[in-house]
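hey so i finally got around to running the thing on that chain from the lab meeting. sorry it took forever, my laptop kept dying and i had to restart like 3 times. anyway pasting the input first so we r on the same page abt which one it is
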Amino acid sequence: MELGILTDTIKRDSIEETLEVINSYGLHYIQLDLTSAGLSTMPEKIEVEMVKRIKDAAQENDITISAVSGTFNMSHPDENVRRAGLERLESLAVTTKSMGSSVITLCTGTRDEENMWRWHPDNNTPEAWRDMSDCLRQALDIAAEHDVILAIETEASNVVNTAARCRKILDQMQSPHLKVIMDAANLFQLNQYDQMQATIQEGFDLLGEEVVLSHAKDLSAEPGRSFVAAGEGILDYDYYLAQLAQGYDHIPLIMHGLSEAQIHKSMEFLKQHMI
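ok and heres what got predicted. didnt touch it at all, straight out
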């Protein structure tokens, strides 16, 4: 199993500098956030020259772009906001393969109008599910047109907030272009921390066949639900990594939710716990 990193962990002035730094850490797999190239995560347009710079910089630094971030609020209550996100997704899908990747990561979103990572009590309503699934179906039409994979994950603050609901949307869409990011820290509701191994196992049982990418961050021991760098929290990494070792060795483990100053420590922790 190879370690990788989300590029926006590294703050530099250009994509070339960013990938050089990532290479210097001995990391050769990334999830690309286009903010690292001076754009927004979901730009309206990506110039051909920028696509070439990204691809060239990755090749020069022996880096594989395992996925490109394409998160927007697919459950936003305003249809116009969802439509704008789909338009930007199309712009990203047009260029993803030219950058050297075939996977775009998504966020299923929330009814919160300001923060797509914040819980809203309407997330569990039929209306939220309807809007999210309609938006996802349109996104999958875009993915099919450009032959890319869209990867979603569970997130307690989103409409797809459990492994069971993630399985439900996979079964509903029935698309070869829809896959899963396995992030053990995202499988948990607050009342599940004492069921750590069972919750992780359920995630693999329900979603394992669809996993194309894995993430590494940690659950904070502080009250409430927050995340810290891998190795700094309470997630059972021995169990998580043992599950990943059973058939997912070819999938990079992407570190995120950490600062650059924490990279070395998290890398050491993860390598010590890998089987």
